[in-house]
């Protein structure tokens, strides 16, 4: 999110999901949309039915890539060279939106100078896609009146994630494809309410509504509201906490609804950190691998057992209503927090989630007009929604960017932290499958979902499999510089020779034993998408 | 004026709720009710004075779940050490249930389920519920947005299979009966019914004629069936459909005639458990995969093919008619655009 926040002033989808249906060109990059965001994929299909052109950038031949008009199967990690090359072509062919660049943006000269130094042919070789194909994509995107870019973790989970996001924003601004209906840059959020968690200050450096902790005015506002003194220093990022090791900076943790032992890279490091804490409390609806390490586990209520709001990818805040009472000894997250707070001598007395929402409306400007009575009986409201009279905002940056002018931030190619070599000749990328969700805390409890996808499979090209004498379903030993796991092979031409792909859902094949700790310098997002591994057929067991 | 007698009756609209109140003394009542969120669903009526019977909109669910529940305990088992298994049949409700507002598509779907569950092997669970049912139909004067029962020849009017049937003639309902249970109701609660005149019957034909002209979609089910039977559907059709399919199974769950199920044992303790039957879907790879990993339906392409061939080709061969009843629910449900109307349109184009 750091990338878009720098460039546009706001890190969220600029469009509504429905608007994707009306786009003339859809550029999907780093998103396995049909499996990870089926409701978005459906809009893309509908748009294509209506005549829209679909460009997919993905090293793998995903389902969506098969249906694309142009599939740019780039080498993993070469997104920035590709985006720069597309921009250079747009400039060369006079497809840039000069008026938009002049009126709405700043720092164009720096981008232009960088692009004019670019050798497109050389870039095409780095990218691994013929220049003519890149040119065709640039022409289609550059000529569109309404074009949408959808991107996901395939962009952000690299050491250059923030720079890549900014390059996507550069491309959109250069061709004037932002600030309009059905036109924009849309990061697809990976989890229900992850947008809401960020909006509410679930980030190290901001209070709710992205008010920075190191700005005195904001800090004083929250100190006054909460009657406590607050730190003006940004907190730690996830890996700074979970990779702290034996003597890490954090000595006690309270983890809510997250399973870092499976989801964070370099599992051994995470285990070392968590087991050496002085105190660990975990809240989750089921006993996760992380919760098993905890001193105290709080059973949490599920969505059906509580009333409140979720905020989705398109900034839409919607009500969720309690259908059944919390089962057993479980409590809602809010009740758990209030109980704890009371015992820590900061009593909270919220009688309902509607009351919490009133406080949010008071303190978080983009939620300023959101009250439960307005959210009831509707499909919710999209932020920013400044006050009770405001109808919400379907698409962002109308008339001007949130930060004023959109800022071009040029970026150059950075090679991934670890590429295949003689010892570890295969490139491993990780992601999700349709039938499972994240670390499987919930989805693996469903026998039907597990019947469809019940174990980790390693996607491998049949030619590579042939060289390893591996048949479909055989067990493989996969090793990186950090660890080793075993899993079954799935032979498919979705992946190219030299590249393999698997998921992080299964604790029996904990892929994050293998992944690398390298992370983006700005967002601190780990490079889950690229590391080097070796493969071997497993003969016994 | 001489009134020509018919075997049809008139029920004033004001008298519908009073009639239901009387019927409620003998039957559990199920009818399309509008809930507080504005959705209309077939629902058990607990309190007639505190619900809104909605005969204007299509219920989002069909009656499948009432005859063939999504999950059903078939029996319980116990296994004490040293003793052989003991089985205890599951208790089921014995009440007679009257279903109101059963439109021709849903009625046709029940007649299809009768073929599946009662024709050769008689499924006792289904049979008990079916024998205890009274179906009060409702002809469709205005087909809904995704309806195509004219294409599957299961609507918009139907003249068989119901116990009683209502046709909305504006001021009142025309009432017909097709089975003795319906006759019994007409007789027992005769105070609600007046004999219909020949003009009323003419009005019913007029409503039928007008309804046939109100379909918003033209769906050439017969052409698709012909092209399937004659092998004119290109493989590309299945490939495209499977690429769009999101594998949610929603089409099978919402479909009034999809009756695939799985049976599994749910262990409750070391010595006790339940055998459960629950809905399943042929589009799931796990539905056909065998122990050891072999799958006779070896890809999502073939699974989609199986789904549509079953409905529009295999059942036609076996039972003489397609097992799609044209209710359009899967069209509303499907978010990949893999619904049966898309398939039929594709199958027609490919064949021509």
Walk me through what this model shows.
The complex is a heterodimer of chains A (541) and B (352). Chain A is 31% helix and 17% strand. Chain A has 3 domains: 2-188, Dimethylsulfoxide Reductase, domain 2, CATH 3.40.228; 194-382, Rossmann fold, CATH 3.40.50; 426-537, Beta Barrel (Barwin-like endoglucanases). Chain A has 541 residues and is α/β, with parallel strands linked by helices. In chain A, the strands form 6 sheets. Chain A has a 6-stranded mixed beta barrel. In chain A, strands 3-2-1-5-6 form a 5-stranded parallel β-sheet. Chain A is globular, with a radius of gyration of 24 Å. The longest helix of chain A has 14 residues, at 79-92. By secondary structure, chain B is an alpha+beta fold. Chain B has 2 domains: 9-62 and 95-212, no CATH class; 221-351, no CATH class. Chain B has an 8-stranded mixed β-sheet with strand order 3-2-6-7-8-9-1-10, with helices on both faces. In chain B, strands 5-4-12-11 form a 4-stranded antiparallel β-sheet, with no helix packed on it. The interface between A and B is medium-sized, with 18 and 14 residues.
Characterize this entry briefly.
By secondary structure, chain A is an alpha/beta fold. Chain B has helices at 16-23, 64-67, 104-118, 124-131, 149-152, 180-188, 198-212, 221-229, 235-244, 250-254, 285-288, 300-319, 329-333, 340-351, and strands spanning 9-12, 28-34, 40-44, 71-78, 86-89, 97-102, 133-138, 164-168, 172-177, 194-195, 261-267, 272-279.
